[in-house]
Amino acid sequence: MKNWHPPSKQNVLILSVFYAITIAAFYLAATSINSQNENLAIARTFICILLLPILSKYILQLIALPFYTLKEKLQHKSNQKTNQSTLSVSVIIPAYNEEVGIIKTLKSVLNTGYKKLEVIIVNDGSTDNTHQLVTNFISEIKENEYDNTRIKYLQLNNGGKARALNKALKLASNDIIMTIDGDCLMDKNAISNTVKRFNCDKVGAVAGNVIVGNKSKAIEVIQQLEYLCGFFLRRADSVFNSVFIIGGAAAAYRRNVLLEVGDFCTDIVTEDIEMSTRILAAGYNTRYAANAVTYTEGPSTWRSLCAQRLRWKFGRFQTFIKFQNLFFSKHKQHNKYLTWLLLPIAVYAEFILLIEVVVLAVFFSYTFICNDYVPLVMLITLMATLIMLQVFFDSKKHFHKNLLLIAPIAWLLFLVVDVVEFQALFRSLKRLYKKENLQWQKWVRIGL
């Protein structure tokens, strides 16, 4: 996989404009004379109070981040005293029209070389060449090439990803069940580094580190940046044993826990988030493996990205409604970090997103009218510094080095993300109000 692409003229133009805006902000902060406006100052104070719950959550997560490394070291010592390496793994690959990347995905799983491995490919009624590619690949494998790996292939009529996963679960026989999407590539150490986190029976699921592998377009780089920041904070959630979003692109579950809590839900479009939340509701811990990397292909068009985020947003709301009893739960088996912080703040953040236009209008009105650019510059500096630190501490920092260039303008890029998230929020609320469901969206893959 190539690590660098020459920037297109469009990307150069976007970079130039965003850098010009950022430099202008610093220049105005250094040269402008502040003029106070009492009404706007009050409004700004109100906005700060409004954002305080979200800021408090981020501060707590940042404080918890160093403890992730400490906890990892302690778990490593614990693993050395146990037979953790003896855990067997079943990797499930659900596929629907994945002819572009399914063989690369399958090879990446097999090339991990994990000793006790079983691979189950589920063809969910593909209408392209997926079936022929998979069957040819299996028949052409040399008998001794993957002598420790059992490969099973299941062909179904199209019934959705959750149903495909459930069918595969009935074939899986190993201790740990991992899932990976048919457009992803698994890093060589992804399985072994994931298994290490199952160092006690209380751990029900583990989330891997998903990286956007395509980064030649501006829309793809924005997703790369977004994934980096989002997954980095999961280290803090892992410290509190409460990672409630475990995406199917890199998810791992203890098989006995899945047998206890039941099959993947077919009524919720984000069956992976529903499952991880259900495992937490059952009293199990969930963790994050920062060095268990899977590369995914992010949408390369704005239309596809908007459709993807609609599904994520709508499915998350479905999950919140289903598990509403978790919010502020006092039950002993429920994680208080999850029930009193993560879940309530997740819903509150959607409310803030809904009124973000007003929030930004007040903030920038105060900035321009009062010539007070210092808060904006502080925000830009803090965000750029955090992104650089995230790149430095990521297990694939060489792959992310392109993000160092855009760190100073990340504040503008995240505004673009917010526009995409807002449309998803609006359309999700509209569907919930009208009691409309949502079908799985599919976009054209280019391949990693």
Automatic annotation (TrEMBL):
Pfam families in the record: Glycos_transf_2 (PF00535)
InterPro entries associated with the record: Glyco_trans_2-like, Nucleotide-diphossugar_trans
Annotated transmembrane regions: 12-30, 42-68, 337-367, 373-393, 405-426
SUPFAM superfamilies referenced in this protein's UniProt entry, alphabetically: Nucleotide-diphospho-sugar transferases
Matches recorded under CDD domains: CESA_like (cd06423)
Gene3D superfamilies: Spore Coat Polysaccharide Biosynthesis Protein SpsA, Chain A
Annotated Glycosyltransferase 2-like domain residues: 90-260
UniProt keyword Transmembrane present: yes
Keyword annotations from UniProtKB, A to Z: Glycosyltransferase, Membrane, Transferase, Transmembrane, Transmembrane helix
Family: Belongs to the glycosyltransferase 2 family.
PANTHER family referenced in this protein's UniProt entry, alphabetically: POLY-BETA-1,6-N-ACETYL-D-GLUCOSAMINE SYNTHASE
Protein name as it appears in the record: Glycosyltransferase family 2 protein
